[in-house]
Amino acid sequence: MGKNQNLVLDIHEKPNFSQWITLSIQHLFAMFGSTVLVPVLVGLSPAVALASSGLGTLAYLLITKGRVPAYLGSSFAFIVPLGIAKVAGGPGAMMLATFISGIVYGIVALSINKFGYRWLMRLLPPVVAGPIIMVIGLGLAGTAVGMSMYKNFGAPAQELIYSTKHILVALSTVAITIIASTYFKGFLKLIPILFGIVGGYIIAALAGIVNFSIVMEAKWFEIPNLTLPFVSYDPSFSWSIVLLIVPVAIVTLAEHIGHQLVLSKVVNRDLVADPGLDRSILGDGVSIIIASLIGGPPTTTYGENIGVLAITRAYSVYVIGGAGVFALCFSFIGKVSAFLNSIPQAVMGGVSIILFGIIASSGLRMLVEHKVDFGDNRNLLISSVILVIGIGGAFIKFTPEFELSGMALAAIIGVILNLVLPGRPKDDSELDLFGEVEKE
Predict the structure, then answer these.
(1) What is the rounded average pLDDT for all residues in the chain?
(2) Which is nearest to 101 in space by CA: 278, 252, 295?
(3) How far apart are CA 28 and CA 36, in angstroms?
């Protein structure tokens, strides 16, 4: 591939000290809002999420031999199963299932190293992957709206207290995020979520629904509340929890491959060939394992990362590594953790309305861009079944302790339907989720 004449920093170029600090903090800010939103939604520590994000990013850079400038943050795909798992099986079962998800990544990485990645594309053509992604976003719609409307979201349905003040704060947060995304220019356009959270926080403070005392009382230096196996809990294996969480890896693996292909175009290098999808997927899996061992949410590569690289043209892995180091350092600043915990649910609800809607729209966009023909009954049936089972909350209970439900069930049934129904495309170009030809 040719040299990018507008390049600021190439992948292996080391910035000077001031560049390094500025670009790394800037990069972290672009990932910050989404990274801390996930743990807030599932009841995990935002500080631990920052630590696992930083450690996971550094591990990823090491495993990919410093050739892939990718930052890893909390994955939205796991929000619903993590929330259910935490209630049903406690932290032990939840973190063990997350650990197994990382192992699945390792197995897939070995399989890609051996057989290439076409087999994965045959399991996940657009007609399957698109509706599954839509289920992730639409399945979370009730959570976003509930956080926005009620003072005490999370209480039993009959005890929920509607609040006009809270819904107005949420809608104000939505408005600020939309304005930032639509009208701001340059790098500022890439951090609308951060603007939304900060703006919403200020409005919530003026409305009197922010508890500042926890920020004032917090220490400047504070070790994150790590959740460690055999220290904080005894790991417990549960088939129902494993089958609730692990199948989500199907979706995040497809997302990972898509990010790698787009990132290759941005940095003008074939990252699928060098260092290879096997290494990048292994790095992603190791990051998930690290998160599970310290009590953080599963991580994934971020689309925001690609956006920042595209606009700054600073592709240096030193900048990405610096962002990872800053994330780790911020996790030890008690004031930062307390500030994150003080953000009202109404503000997070407003941000979630946009983020969850974007996730659902991304699945729809995949169907449109790949021109999935819904005049074909095969495509219509597959997508319809995935959407209704996933959003409707269907489940199969095998035993009182073992059930397969929600998005995991929808994903598995979608893959099976795609494999067994007649009329599956034979041409690899039709099967390809990302419109790329694999290089042998």
Answers:
(1) 84
(2) 252
(3) 11
